[in-house]
């Protein structure tokens, strides 16, 4: 799916752009909360703390970018009218988590904290793969539009997160790539549905 045209249309409209930034902020914040929810009560390592903290920082950073659009009065919260495709956006991570938990439970017969942690590893990996694709395209569109908004710092940190997840997945299973490939496909389908819904709602040119 070629997502660049839809991002170009969004960036060219300040109100849509503000809601797009707010939507990304919401998803980063939701990701941070998911990471924290997966923590063991006692066995919390430095990587998990770092990752949750950086996802929260991304949510804050994206919110602050609204000032550069002179749209600071918009998108003060995460209410539905301040997000793009709010219903899909708000259920995105939870739906992915449920699908991944179901798959991992079947494959590894996990339960309790072990299932929660395994889901954290694979869901986060899939989201980092998505971020590694989405944010550079978004930045290219911002640069071409000479926008004051930029997400370069997020790109660098997401690249680091992806490397960290790879290392943890290798420790989890020698066959991690086989499982990760399927989970990335699940996320890919969800992402394409999300973007298609966004295209329809905003009546933007087709991405096909």
Describe this protein's structure:
The protein is mostly helical and 208 residues long. 75% of the residues lie in helices and 0% in strands. It has 7 helices and no strands. Helix 2 packs parallel to helix 4.
Q: Helices and strands, in N-to-C order? A: HHHHHHH
Q: What portion of the residues fall into strands of 2 or more residues?
A: under 5%
Radius of gyration: 17 Å
Reported for the largest beta sheet, the result is: none
Q: Could you give the distance between the termini?
A: 7 Å
**Which secondary-structure class do the elements indicate?**
mainly alpha
Quick one: overall form? globular
Mean pLDDT: 90
Number of strands: 0
Low-confidence stretches: none
So how many helices?
7
Helix content: over 70%
Short synopsis of the structure:
By secondary structure, the chain is mostly helical. 75% of the residues lie in helices and 0% in strands.
């Amino acid at each position: 799916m070629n997502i660049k045209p839809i991002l170009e249309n969004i960036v060219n409209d300040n109100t849509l752009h503000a809601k797009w930034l707010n939507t990304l902020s919401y998803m980063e914040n939701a990701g941070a909360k998911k990471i924290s929810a997966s923590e063991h009560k006692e066995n919390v390592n430095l990587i998990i703390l770092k990752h949750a903290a950086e996802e929260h920082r991304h949510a804050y950073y994206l919110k602050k970018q609204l000032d550069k659009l002179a749209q600071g009065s918009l998108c003060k919260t995460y209410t539905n009218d301040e997000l793009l495709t709010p219903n899909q956006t708000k259920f995105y991570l939870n739906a992915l988590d449920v699908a991944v938990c179901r798959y991992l439970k079947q494959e590894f017969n996990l339960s309790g904290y072990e299932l929660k942690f395994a889901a954290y590893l694979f869901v986060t990996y899939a989201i980092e793969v998505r971020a590694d694709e989405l944010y550079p395209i978004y930045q290219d569109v911002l640069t071409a539009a000479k926008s004051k908004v930029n997400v370069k710092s997020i790109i660098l940190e997401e690249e680091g997160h992806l490397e960290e997840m790879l290392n943890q997945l290798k420790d989890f299973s020698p066959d991690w790539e086989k499982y990760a490939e399927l989970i990335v496909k699940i996320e890919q389908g969800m992402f394409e549905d999300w973007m298609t819904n966004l295209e329809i709602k905003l009546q933007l040119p087709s991405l096909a």
